[in-house]
Design goal:
With 791 residues, the protein is of the alpha/beta class. It has 19 helices and 25 strands.
Length: 791
């Protein structure tokens, strides 16, 4: 698609007949250059102020302050090894936490419960042990519930996920106990079983222990990376009464974050509490996501600066809410909020639509005034506005293409399931340079037929439209567009008032860039680690929109095509050079190993063993294990649905924990059949036992385990349409468990039982993995054994 070529109107800039020629100032572009420099200074200063982590305080910090040094001592005790539910390390950490809370003088409880998570895929059950302790308030109006989970994934020690969260709460409790008691109760809840599906939080949120939802505010501490600033990325209802509590130590936050988070397939313990009717705030750091849920989330990669930021934010918010009237929180409304250079900006959500209406009226008035003053042509503004999506889509397309190119050069990048390598900063900057280059090329082509004010008016029109659309659909995001739109309209009106030959005219038009530097740039920088380079199209859309608001003094009017082509090539080459520098910097070593997927899969009926890999990531060590071609594995191994096609290779058959199934009873109930099964394991103790029903000729009406009802119907996706009902028991008892199924259908009930165990059978690997390789966070480092049964 090409940009329309417009004929400029020489008469618009020509002096009246008989008038003396207007002398053009030699430094006509200087105001635009100065404005550009100011915008760059604002963007850099705001971003640095927002994203700079605080210096960790030492062990000698005052007792009332949060000290990362003191808190990290807990991390060092918690994160020595993986601690999944049911492991000896898990129980050791539980006992350590109980001892520390007793040492702080708190009365505490271990709350054993059976948790069931049924809302996101196959139902998950487990016996959990949540830990609760309370600092009593002096005159409580409610309670502040501090939440973090103390289990980890099977593959990694979870130094930040969620060792940082647990340690931050322990140090916060110590700091609170060093001073006067808070007005409100402060309750610590260290949940169990978050990693397999927030099972512990679900158990608590659906129990009588929950208390009054209207008098409880949750502060949930999480992690999606190992470094960087803490982000408050999600709130519950009535956030206008919650967000002010962040003023004591302002994290990175934006009401846009929740709008984005709702679109992602993520959940935390906070999800369970929010669905139970509680409100609160959810915190996490997102940088260093390449280490997330892997063995790299260890003490060596645990950032004390990030821990200091998380703890200082938690302590300040707890003190504010601990002194507040929590009963009044329910009277709050939704707010627009964002951090700005270390400050917290907020205003009522009720202003979102009026501000969007004001921006619309202001833009219409500014265009009318500019046309009336002959500063712009309405037709050319309209045509320019029609082309604005081109550079935005072009920037997003360049981001996608650049990532595909990176995968050709560095196929190991595909192993990072969160889309970011270990050191993505320079590479992300190169992506941004490419996006700006695309915008510059668009603006230069457009200037062959349009004036600078007409280009600025077109961009302001799009900002206004986005402000209105987001105000209606995603109110928390509207502020990103409404303030640049208002400034853009004001700048257009001022520019139209200035004489045509004024050097300030072209500098006044793109005033939208000033709030854009304050608002759009920090959001783009935040989105890069949140979404990763693999989905850089998202942040690059924001980068391109910001770049389109800037004064572009180098485009000129009707630039020669040869010069334009040369400049365009140089701009794109600069972006590619920056990307190349980033990739060269991000080498593979023992601190930054390649991440690959590898699973040992044994069919207990055919006794066939094989290696399987998703094919994401690469390493020479892996290739000999999966050199047997590609195959679909879901029929024999229902959990291995995604990615559909697996790289496979032959494996030696070894002994591993294997599932067993016994029919306890079977009876008719109307037109249905009620079957009670006993699922267990032999040859060892697996971390998970699963059961999947062949639903091609059978419908699961309902299920039940551990006294809890399980939903029927299709509870999970299945590429082959066969295993659409599933169930997982996490850390099953040594003797197994009973599962009751109520089913309808013709013919027998066909099921697959699966045992999953961390690690591979002894002797299965021919050579141990080298230090430059680690398991990916997805479908890696475990053994699956399946068996088919007909009931």
């Amino acid at each position: 698609m090409t940009t329309p070529q417009l004929e400029s109107d020489p008469a618009a800039d020509a002096p009246p007949p008989g008038a003396a020629p207007v002398r053009r100032p030699r430094l006509r572009g200087l105001p635009s250059l100065l404005l550009l420099a100011l915008v760059a200074l604002i963007a850099v200063g705001t971003t640095v102020a927002d994203l700079s982590v605080p210096k960790p305080l030492g062990a000698d910090a005052p007792a009332g302050q949060f000290s990362a040094t003191r808190a990290h001592r807990h991390v060092e005790r918690i994160a020595t090894e993986p601690r999944p539910v049911g492991s000896a390390a898990h129980d050791r950490v539980r006992d350590y936490l109980l001892a520390e809370l007793r040492k702080a003088g708190l009365s505490l409880e271990v709350l054993p419960a059976v948790g069931v998570e049924t809302t996101r895929s196959a139902a998950v059950t487990g016996r959990m042990q949540n830990i609760r302790a309370t600092i009593p308030g002096t005159d409580p109006t409610g309670r502040v519930l501090l939440v973090a989970h103390y289990d980890s994934v099977e593959l990694g020690p979870g130094a930040t996920d969620d060792g940082h969260g647990v340690a931050a709460i322990l140090e916060t409790v110590r700091a609170l106990r060093s001073g006067p008691a808070p007005r409100n109760d402060v309750t610590v809840l260290l949940t169990d079983g978050e990693e397999p599906g927030m099972v512990g939080a679900q158990a608590y949120a659906t129990s009588s222990e929950l208390g009054d939802p209207d008098r409880t505010v949750v502060l949930n501490l999480e992690s999606r990376g190992t470094s960087g600033r803490v982000v408050m990325f999600e709130t519950g209802a009535h956030n206008s009464a919650l967000v002010p509590a962040l003023s004591g130590h302002v994290p990175v936050t934006t009401s846009l974050a929740y709008e984005v988070y709702r679109l992602l397939p993520n959940y935390t313990d906070f999800t369970a509490f929010r669905e139970a009717g509680l409100t609160g705030m959810n915190f996490a750091n997102v940088a260093g996501s390449a280490n997330y849920d892997t063995a790299q989330d260890n003490l060596a990669n645990s950032s004390r600066a990030s821990l200091q930021d998380l703890g200082s934010t938690t302590l300040a918010a707890t003190r504010e809410l601990g002194a507040a009237d929590i009963a009044a929180v329910a009277e709050g409304s939704d707010a627009t909020y964002f951090s700005l250079g270390g400050l917290l900006v907020r205003y009522p959500g009720a202003l979102v639509l009026p501000l969007a209406a004001l921006a619309t009226a202001g833009f219409a008035a500014a265009v009318w005034w500019a046309v009336r003053r002959s500063a712009v042509s309405g037709r050319r503004v309209g045509v320019a506005a029609a082309t604005v999506p081109l550079p935005l889509l072009g920037a997003a397309g360049v981001g996608w293409a650049a990532w595909q190119l990176l995968l050709l050069v560095r196929p190991d990048y595909a192993g990072f399931v969160n889309g970011d390598p270990y050191r993505p900063g320079v590479t992300a900057a190169g992506f941004a340079v490419l996006a700006v280059a695309v915008v510059w090329i668009w603006a230069a082509l457009l200037r062959r037929g349009c004036g600078a004010l007409e280009v600025s008016a077109a961009v302001t029109g799009w900002l206004t439209a986005l402000a209105v659309v987001t105000a209606l659909l995603t109110p928390g995001a509207s502020y990103l567009f409404v303030w640049p739109a208002l400034f853009g309209a004001a700048g257009l009106a001022v520019a139209a008032r200035l004489p045509a030959h004024s050097p300030l005219r072209e500098a006044a038009g793109p005033c939208a860039g000033l709030p854009g530097a304050l608002l759009l740039v920090p959001v783009a920088v935040l989105l890069f680690p949140t979404l990763g380079l693999a989905t850089a199209a998202g942040p690059l859309l924001v980068v391109a929109l910001f770049a389109a608001t800037l004064p572009l003094p180098f485009t000129g009017a009707r630039p020669r095509m040869r010069i334009l082509a040369l400049r365009s090539g140089l701009a794109l080459a600069t972006g590619l050079a920056v990307i190349a520098a980033g990739v060269a910097r991000d080498g593979v070593d023992s601190r930054h190993p390649s991440q690959v997927s590898l699973v040992y899969a044994l069919d207990g009926d055919t006794h066939r063993a094989r290696w399987a890999s998703t094919g994401l990531g690469s390493h020479a060590w892996l290739d000999p294990y999966v050199d047997g071609g590609e195959a679909r594995l879901e029929d024999a191994f229902p959990p291995m649905r995604w990615p559909g096609i697996w790289r496979t290779g032959a494996a030696d058959r070894r002994t591993a924990p294997s599932p067993t199934l016994k029919v306890v009873s079977s009876r008719r109930q109307g037109d249905a059949r009620v079957v009670r099964l006993h699922v267990a394991a032999e040859s060892g103790s697996p971390e998970q036992l699963m059961l999947f029903v062949d639903t091609r000729n059978t419908t699961v009406v309902s299920g039940g385990a551990e006294g809890r009802r399980l939903p029927g119907g299709d509870t999970r996706e299945s590429l082959n349409g066969r295993w659409t009902w599933g169930y997982t028991y996490v850390a099953p008892p040594a003797g197994g468990f009973d599962l009751t199924l109520t089913v309808r259908g013709k013919g027998p009930l066909r099921v697959r039982a699966v045992a999953q165990t961390t690690g591979f059978p002894q002797g299965a690997l021919r050579t141990p993995p080298p230090p430059t390789l680690t398991w990916s966070a997805l479908d890696s480092g475990f053994t699956l054994v399946t068996r088919a049964f007909t009931v």
